[in-house]
């Protein structure tokens, strides 16, 4: 997609993103595609249907990315956020993932599900979005009249030194064969995708579930579409091609004036769907007085999912107003939202941002974050369940130990509560 001017190119970039996100919102609402729900089905009922749908989405996105990269049609090396960064921030991936997993369980859904629920009329999720947005914004942007961010104040000094320099990049292709990372990623990706598809479709119940299959395929294709669009919108200047981010970097030389210049260049880089940092971007966009220069892929994605979910809610006549059932419910959701804000930024993404988009790049940190998110959510559900069943007898520590024993992470002899 080649354009002669930046404004035209950016407009197509943003509105194509919105269209893809609208499709994501429709499909996620229709099929009940929900990563927290998938973990809940697995932990509480042993049902892997929605886990398989999530894995199918990962497989579709991963296969598309590794194939299109070999064709030069996707540039995940230059991604925003930098999934393949040479600095493996393993501690941030793990801590952020666990915090996010706990938070999404307390707040009744991950970032994408929060947006889908808003589109369906859930005003609890509006509050969750607002809290996440403020936390995410100040994790990466300084407080007014200050140069301090939440990340700098609370995390940077002790967690960033734990990062490991892995060389060129942290994706499995670069780690195993840096001289030919692209072809190595292709081989690894194909093997992982085939193994995933075997696991996904060996279930007769899943093969008969049209919604799960539809949700997995469409979500994976939407993520792939985000990668493709953001990697292929280009501007021609004097017979030379510039990507959006390259053009921004050369703005003083190439642009006729400062009119239309975005506030930052990194959000113009190749990328796909993620929702926690964009919630922070949306807070900044509103604070700017809705300045067009603040519009990003992430903001358009956020709005598109809400609109898509709302449209499906109208078509299916499922739109309904929801509010907190008690003060305890309110506090639980607020705590969950705070943890999601911190965790999503630390981990560089959410269940979509790291769990599908990041994993599709075969970045080691994305796999760490994905495992941590699932663990954080699963153990929270275990603790909640034990406290519900045993009530006053189940202290937090007893419930935690029982949950960890259920997950084979602690020996059974340490549990004080019988398995339920």
Descriptive overview:
This protein has 420 residues and is mostly helical. The protein has one domain (2-414). It is 65% helix and 3% strand. It has a three-stranded mixed sheet. A two-stranded antiparallel ribbon has the order 2-3. It is globular, with a radius of gyration of 21 Å.
What descriptive keywords fit this protein?
single chain, 420 residues, two-stranded antiparallel sheet, mainly alpha
Provide a short characterization of the protein structure.
By secondary structure, the chain is mainly alpha-helical. The chain contains 19 helices and 5 strands.
Q: Which SSEs are present, and which pair or pack?
A:
Blueprint lengths: L1 E2 L2 H26 L3 H11 L3 H22 L16 E2 L1 H17 L4 H9 L3 H18 L9 H10 L4 E2 L6 H5 L4 H21 L2 H4 L2 H23 L1 E4 L2 E4 H6 L1 H4 L21 H12 L9 H19 L11 H20 L6 H6 L5 H27 L5 H11 L14
Parallel strand pairs: 1-4
Antiparallel strand pairs: 2-3, 4-5
Count of distinct strands: 5
The amount of beta strand, in percent, is under 5%
Query: How many individual helices?
Result: 19
Q: Give the overall form.
A: globular
Summed up, the domain count is 1
């Amino acid at each position: 997609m080649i354009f002669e001017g930046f404004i035209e190119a950016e407009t197509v970039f943003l509105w194509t993103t919105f269209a893809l996100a609208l499709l994501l919102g429709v499909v996620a609402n229709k099929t009940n595609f929900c990563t927290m729900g998938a973990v809940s089905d697995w932990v509480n009922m042993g049902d892997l249907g929605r886990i398989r749908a999530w894995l199918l989405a990962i497989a579709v996105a991963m296969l598309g990315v590794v194939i299109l990269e070999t064709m030069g049609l996707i540039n995940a090396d230059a991604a925003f956020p930098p999934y393949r960064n040479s600095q493996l921030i393993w501690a941030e991936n793990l801590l952020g993932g666990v915090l996010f997993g706990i938070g999404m369980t307390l707040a009744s859904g991950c970032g994408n599900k929060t947006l889908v629920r808003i589109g369906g009329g859930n005003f609890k999720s509006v509050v969750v979005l607002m809290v996440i947005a403020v936390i995410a914004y100040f994790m990466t942007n300084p407080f007014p009249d200050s140069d301090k961010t939440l990340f700098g104040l609370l995390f940077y000094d002790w967690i960033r030194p734990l990062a490991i320099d892995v060389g060129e990049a942290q994706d499995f292709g670069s780690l195993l064969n840096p001289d030919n990372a692209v072809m190595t990623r292709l081989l690894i990706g194909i093997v992982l995708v085939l193994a995933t598809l075997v696991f996904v479709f060996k279930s007769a119940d899943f093969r008969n579930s049209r919604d799960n299959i539809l949700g997995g395929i469409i979500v994976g294709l939407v993520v792939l579409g985000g990668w493709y669009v953001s990697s292929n919108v280009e501007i021609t200047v004097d017979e030379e091609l510039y990507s959006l981010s390259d053009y921004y970097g050369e703005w003083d030389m190439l642009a006729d004036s400062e009119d239309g210049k975005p506030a930052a260049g990194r959000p113009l880089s190749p990328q796909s769907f993620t929702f926690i940092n964009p919630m922070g971007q949306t807070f900044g966009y509103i604070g700017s007085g809705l300045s067009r220069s603040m519009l990003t892929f992430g903001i358009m994605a956020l709005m598109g999912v809400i609109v898509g979910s709302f449209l499906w809610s109208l078509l299916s006549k499922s739109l309904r107003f929801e509010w907190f059932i008690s003060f305890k419910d309110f506090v639980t959701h607020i705590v969950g939202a705070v943890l999601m804000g911190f965790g999503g930024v630390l981990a560089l993404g959410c269940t979509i941002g790291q769990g599908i988009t990041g994993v599709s790049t075969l970045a080691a940190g994305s796999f760490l974050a994905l495992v941590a998110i699932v663990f954080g959510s699963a153990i929270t559900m275990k603790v909640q369940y034990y406290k519900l069943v045993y009530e006053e007898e189940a202290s937090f520590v007893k419930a935690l130990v029982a949950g960890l024993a259920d997950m084979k992470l602690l020996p059974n002899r340490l549990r004080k509560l019988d398995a339920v």
